[in-house]
Amino acid sequence: MRSTRQRNVIALLFGCLTATLACATPSVFVANNYGAKGDGSGMQTAAIQKAIDAAAAVGGTATVNPGTYRTGSLFLKSGVTLDLPAGVTLIGSPSLQDYPMLPTRVAGIEMSWPAALINVRDQHDVAITGKGTIDGDGAIWWKSYWDLRAKYEPMGLRWASDYDARRPRLLLVQNSSAVRIGGGLLLTRSGFWTVQILYSHDVHVDGITIRNNVGGKGPSTDGVDIDSSRAILVEHADIDVNDDALCLKSGRDSDGLRVNRPTEDITIRDSIVRHGAAAITIGSETSGGFRNIEVDHITALSGVPSGVLFKSAHTRGGFAHDIRIHDLDLEGVAIPIHITMNWNPNYSYATLPTGMKDIPSYWKTLTTPVPEAQGLPHFSDVHIWNIKATGARRAFDVSAYPNATLDNFRLDHLHIQAATAGVIANARNWSITDSAIETQDGSKPVLTSGSVERPAEVPYGEPK
User: Fold this and answer.
1) Is the separation of the CB atoms in 280 and 246 below 8 Å?
2) CA 83 → CA 40, 70, 204, distances in Å?
3) What residues are paired with 312 via a beta bridge?
4) Contact at 8 Å (CB) between 271 and 238?
5) What is Dmax (Cα atoms) for the chain?
6) Residues 451/402, Cβ–Cβ less than 8 Å
7) Strands 109-114 and 101-106: what pairing?
């Protein structure tokens, strides 16, 4: 019979062994062990999803070995980290059937739309990390858009093209919280928007590279869209896209006014935009409004036509206040300060051609009239400072409406070199102090509360 001391030693050893085994219990789930093949052949969706589901059961990590994996929509779950190490490429399926139709919001309208390639929907405590690549294989989706657009434009349906050409987003965070994205990820060739953060809070995007001008220029391939969300931090992004790069949105027209969810408590910092519509964009979906926004230390290069870009339309409504933008370095950016409340009318104002029948329900939503009092956007209490711009065409291109002016803008420590000063119209209580606006034609910025007519310009990313 064992002594008490022997029994205690055995119990201690058994306890240590149990603890060791517990610690050794795998919390990393490799999709290759579930049948995933990294040779680029076949569809690997099911195997990768199995690894994600297994990781979700214990709050673990799903990963794949280096290789190329063709996949459809993947759905992350609470407590899961999806780690894509260097040498891994997830490449999106070219078939729409591999992206299930789900309720979401696209370009300001709630509707059913193909799921993204990577989805975080109704989850919390999720991370997407690593130095691997997520590739949307966008060319097929870009062609589908241009083909439809060519058909629709002669019919007066330019505005419907973006909604009828169903193109998968690359990465969607919807109705979720405590989400981390970054660590060196390369996101490329998105079919549509690259990263959309929708109806979510406490999301941190840190250290991503976006390259959508690969193998062509993908239409509407936005970089990061923060959409009716709060408490979002985006930093250390390197972006090359063919539309808005770092963009805040909050809904479109009657549907956005119905939802009425603002984008608020946002920080965007320490990033570079190589190509895209602007260094920072607010709009054109402005219906839910914006407040407490800070953007700083952004560099934009000559492939970027605007520095600070605010855009809306007289059917959007909404507001923007307590906006702080500072320490921007704009190299060859055509218009450092660009504000228009009548953006791209052919897209912004949806009207049905005479005689059209059997229209989709979302067309009815898009063409629902908005009363003037609700439709006018109101931007106020904006502070812009420490802006350095060289090689600009016009220092300012600013206009709104006489009955919805741009109020209480404070600009200081601007150092802008431009061909001409440009115009600031429909502005009330603006100040520009401690600034140097150097123009080749000797003009100076003039503020006016009236309208200034200007020929419509082709928006960035649009064909001429």
Assistant:
1) yes
2) 19, 16, 16
3) none
4) yes
5) 104
6) yes
7) antiparallel
* Token pair in block for residue 263: 């984008």
Which of 6-15, 24-33, 116-125 comes out lowest in average pLDDT? Answer: 6-15
Phi, then psi, of 338 in degrees rounded to 5: -130, 115
Candidate CATH numbers 3.30.1700.10, 3.40.640.10, 3.30.499.10, 2.160.20.10; the one for domain 71-350+362-447: 2.160.20.10
Q: What does the domain layout of the chain look like in residue ranges? A: 71-350+362-447
Find where tokens 């093209």 sit.
Answer: 161
How far apart (Å, rounded) are the C-alpha atoms in residues 302 and 6? 77
- Asked if residues 107 and 285 have their Cβ atoms less than 8 Å apart, the reply is yes
For residues 32-42, average pLDDT: 96
Query: By the 8 A CB rule, do 418 and 395 touch?
Result: yes
Q: Residue type for 279, please?
A: A
| Amino acid occupying residue 221 | T
Q: Are 174 and 198 spatial neighbours (Cβ–Cβ below 8 Å)?
A: yes
Q: Is 445 exposed, middle or buried (0-12, 13-18, 19+ CB in 10 A)?
A: buried
Q: Please indicate, yes or no, whether the overall pTM of this predicted structure exceeds 0.90.
A: yes
Please state, rounded to an integer, the average pLDDT across all residues of the chain.
92
DSSP secondary structure of 239-266? EE-SS-SEEEE---HHHHHHH---EEEE
Residue with tokens 């929708």: 198
From the CB of residue 160, how many other CB atoms can be counted at a distance below 10 Å? Answer: 22
The residue-averaged pLDDT of 437-450 equals 87
Q: Is 374 helix (H, G, I), strand (E, B) or coil?
A: helix
Contact (Cβ atoms closer than 8 angstroms) between residue 310 and residue 293: no
